[in-house]
Records
---
Amino acid sequence: MSRLCICTVEAQSFRNYTDFRVEPHPRFNVISGRNAQGKSNFIEALYFALRGFSLRAARAGEVVLWGRPGARVTADLEHRGMLTRVLCVQEEKSKRLSIAGQRVNQEDFASRFGAVLFTPDDLLLLKGGPQERRRFLDFEMSVFSPGYTAALREYRRALAQRNALLRAAPGDKESFALWTERLTALGGELIMHRLQVLKRVTPLLEEMLKEWGGGEEVGLRYRSAAVLRELSAAGIAGALREALEQNGSREMKMRQTMAGPHRDDLSVLIDGREARVFGSQGQQRSIVLALKLCQVALWKELTGETPVVLLDDVFFELDRGRRRKILEKLGDDAQVFVTVGDSEIPAGKEGKVFRVENGNIKSVVSSR
Ligand code: ATP
Ligand code: MG
């Protein structure tokens, strides 16, 4: 089993950094500093270098240092036993990504290297709307399931075509039947992948939460307008077709496709009840963090490589026992980055401590 590792990372004009060059520790890195100095921005730069986009920026151009034309992040990665250079350039309206000197599009770049990010905003995974959970299923969990990203791209195209027909030419029965066929075939594939991922993740999640104490039963339930009896792609496609037929008159009224993976949702249950509604703060936080750790395990299994783990402001919300268990769970295989406040540097782990002050980052402690 190999592990992905950031050996060096450099950035120019990224958020509040004019320029930095950092050589992280291969295992454990602590990023410390007062509020608003650039800790989260540093984590964002690492995620950007590994996935080619920011999860935090509402607009891609936001990551560019105010007043500059573009931001640039370069990293040397140890990836499957080789040293690989990645380059990500973000300008106000355009982006350039390359791996080992070759231009790569966003879709391919995003499914090349594993980076699992946890931030307090991830609580939206439970608290937010269904689109948050679909985004998690599509762009986080399923990215490394073979064929998923391509099927998703094609599905979105078919959905746009079918919706356009519903709006402009609902009487064109022949085209409509063709797009329905295409949509349900791709939809069947997507849902099948999602269910497979959830099937792998559920026992991991149960085990993790059991270890953390509490004793509650957790469950994941996939919610779909289609009645999912048969779990093959073709079987699900058939169920989707039925759901669309049943929704036919609603579709004509709303002028949009009313069933399919773009409308499905995921429920997290604690002892059979919706965690979103009934879970305590601590339970919700633990579930989200556990889901992210499941993502690490799943990606390891799918790619044969341990992803880089980025934890932004996670630790101050957790008690000491749980911190220790999380770090143990990550084991000694993942390269980990954690941000902490000023006075709470976790002791006893081998690694490097960086200090961030007003857009400057430097290594202050190093141990091997
Ligand atoms: P906290 O402990 O409060 O989470 P932090 O160290 O994580 O703080 P960051 O989120 O990294 O802080 O933000 C540091 C500063 O970067 C903020 O003051 C913010 O205004 C600034 N900033 C954000 N985007 C840009 C940008 N595009 N150009 C310049 N500065 C920016
Ligand atoms: Mg922060």
---
Amino acid sequence: MNVTELVAHFEQAFGRQPAFVARAPGRVNLIGEHTDYNDGFVLPMAIDRDVTIVGAPRDDRVVRLRSANFGDEAGFALERIEKAHDGAWSNYARGVAHVLQQAGFALRGFDGVIYGEVPIGSGLSSSAAIEMATLMAFTAAGADGSAPLALAGAQAARLAQRAENEFVGVNCGIMDQFISSLGKAGHALFIDCRSLAYELTPMPRGVTVLVVDTSAPRSLAASAYNERRAQCEQAARTLGAPALRDVSVETFEQRRSELPDLIARRAAHVIYENQRVLDAVAALRANDVAMFGRLMNQSHDSLRDWYEVSSKELDAVVEIARGVPGVYGARMTGAGFGGCAIALVDDAQAGALAQAIACDYPRRTGREPKVYACVASDGASWSTL
Ligand code: GLA
């Protein structure tokens, strides 16, 4: 659905004209997986798939949001924000309203139609996109109607993350909200998840980022994610470091035997992955796509063998992709346990890769993949209509 169609939808639903459009993208992570909550480094890009809200401020402190995807409507009063049932899409919007008010922002109610084109539950951060789009909508609706809120960039991302951690109850790191907020067309974003310093890095020309959704359910993702976090914290504690970010590859190799085997394997992934992100950024700057691809491959193998968050479907995509000429590298992206894998491929070979996946993946897994060519895109924004 494009903005014109959403405007028509809004007019039909609310019997008046919308005043603003707010949007925020999903993301893929190119490299740096399970490093953000270890105060480490990540290199995601925002993708050309958004969550969009077309809306108009209200004179009271009520929010009414109608979903163009599901056809249902969520309404809540800003005075008393309660959680909807577990898994409800509106919890992301409610959570954002809740934390913005806690942080001292005076919010105005609005009516809105919300539409998402980020695949849901596929590891492309549809939830961060809803959070950032809602945050932009509150910004557009303005403080008491007098002026837009002064809220953007890293601060906006942190508030959206808090909504997810404290209200929705998912213990994610900062990466997804940060890239949805600060992505830039044609660029990946190198983020230091401790200092929140960041740097845009141009994407290489002539290559496509192909995203493959395994269409496999992400079972146990939340509990396994929390378990990995706890294992990383245990490793850092034992090594006397504030976070695994502070442990160099050399120190780790010297002291590895102090850790129980399983904990050492988890830590090994994070510590080497942090170094790979730094190497990948250097490779991008040097336009060394081959090196970048090799690092992607190493990242996947480490997530599969040491961190154990891949799945047979993700491994199948990666194996198929690596057998296609013109593919520089392939890896799972996001938390894992299902979801999506990405491949970096020469533009001229992207069609052949998509075809190889369409042909071999169902044969190997019995599932139908979804394949998207994604373009690095701009982060969240809003404008008046
Ligand atoms: C999920 C979380 C992120 C990050 C990744 C793994 O996407 O939301 O914060 O931890 O998993 O890299």
---
Amino acid sequence: MQITAPMRDDGRIIIHFDYDCFYAAVFEREDPKLKSLPLAVQQKQIIVTCNYEARRRGLYKLQLVREARKRCPDVIIVLGEDLTRFRNASKDNYNFLRSYTWSNKVERLGFDEVFMDVTDVIDYNVGLLNYNDLVTSFFHLDRNDPTIGFHCDASRVFGRTFPKHLESCETAAVSITNTSCNDFEDLLLRLRLGSHLAEHLRHQLEEQKGYTSTVGISTNKLLSKLVGNVNKPKNQTTLLPPYSSPQGGAASNVTNFIDDHDIGKIPGIGFKMAHKIRNYVLGRPAAFDAGLVYGPTKENVKVRDVRTLDGMGPELLGRLLAGPGVPKDLGEKVWGLINGVDVTQVAKAKAVPQQISIEDSYIKLDEVSQAKKELGMLARSLVKRMRMDLTSPIEDDNLGRDLEEDDEDQVQTGSAVTSLRWMAHPKTLRLSTRPRLALNPDGTRSRTFNRISKSTNMPTFVFGFTQGVDVIADKMVEETLLPLFHKLHPEKSGWNLSLVNLCATNMSPTASDAKDGAGRDIGRMFKKQDDMLREWKVEDVDIAPSDEDENDQQKGINGLDAGKTVVGQEHTLALTSVGSEDLLDFTQETLQEDVAWDSDDDTQNLGESCRICGAVMPSYAMLAHERFHDLPD
Ligand code: TTP
Ligand code: MG
């Protein structure tokens, strides 16, 4: 029995951006000479990304450093453990793209992806088109100034398309007239305009910010993200209509497109869910690569196999995926996803984050004195981030001018007491840890994603500006964090933590900002954040060091040939300090408690450290990473 597909709302136009070789591009922007050289960015022993010159020479993401050196001996390797520069670039690009939206619906996914809901911009432009002369259209970027915009040919899609055979000018063959505006033509026209806007934004981003990107255009987040991947890098792809098929007619382009994806490649269907679905479709446990706790699948189960399976539908999926803590409507949600339906909205840009979360992972953390030290590091990072992200300068003639350079120094030491005010107060401070499981009888250790946590009221002294960050952080440790820690781990020993997280949450806007202040201050706030981040960059370290890794990193830097460009060398500093932030890329959604658009039943799993080398990375990267440990030296 075939169950009908859920209805999709194709009234929106969503553009998804993925910056090309992002971390490498950040370094290239700092030193353009690097563009023509093979460049790779290292975290621990892994190349987390490399530029296209390096990829041309056979290097790839998540490759072991020693492999990369073997394959391309003149590769330039830079350290990318300090995330400050990536975070700054990401925020800057985000603000740039945000300035083109009217609705403010623009959402970051990690550091290098952005969704934009441009429905209102597109609809406005559709209303102004001259249908008798689509070829010489003008795309308006400003409702109040008709001169701002760019010329475009609205009779065709810009760039690549899915399906491929209807590329660019050929789509012009589908006529648009002012008398026959059915759903297909209406959607096609709006997507065409979306493709021209996307091209304009890609071009501007490259010209003004120096980043090339890969872009997808469709009607929801899921489809725009997936279709962007079709043509990489420095390209864009539009998913063409028809998006639905008439009863008994040919399959829609959405179905044709999504059906060919592996079930595990669908954002929103995480590793565990995909595993359960695979097992069901195959009628047996799906095989994995041997030798790993969680290896990559060896099976080829596509969306089509799942979607067309007899009896498949929301109920069956709901039963398959049921478990403790799993939302009741998960079956419907997943059924929607495999039919190209994604109802999640692009989140509006927020003046302040919903929460600020700082964490670090550890290879071994099993003593109270050590834990206290680490809590101090994390508390310092947290207080700094709170000051950066949650304060704005006061616009008062007596007190304030905008923050000047030297004021920023003072803010750090706490003497510029009257220049800042809080835009929001986090009311709750949460401490979470992830204890390691005991060793298995065979000496191996299973990974666990489970965290335990305790919360308390955020102490009010945190909001004072008279004391410096260090003083506040120390006080926070003594008066708040250590008591919380002892509640979580009452025993003096016997535990070993792989992760500690501090989170300032339960955000309450400050009264004066609740009305219009937050919106008014946002631009200044972002500028200040970036400036202040620059000041603190050497402390913004993300990976817990170990002696072994330290040696490795030194080799990485010293191993460069004399005369080669060496960037990021100052980040060897990173090796001697800890205190991490944003180990994982957060979406704006993940900043709001645990409703990540792309999360699955692993919602607590915000980042993992490799059980072998301790490298920290998003869980999706762990599978690939672990394979490298299986490679012979
Ligand atoms: P990606 O978008 O996966 O990679 P990319 O932008 O470098 O390359 P592409 O052109 O294929 O999009 O990830 C964005 C950044 O995130 C990447 O530059 C480095 C970082 N990253 C990690 O830190 N760990 C990881 O495991 C991966 C995959 C990426
Ligand atoms: Mg990218």
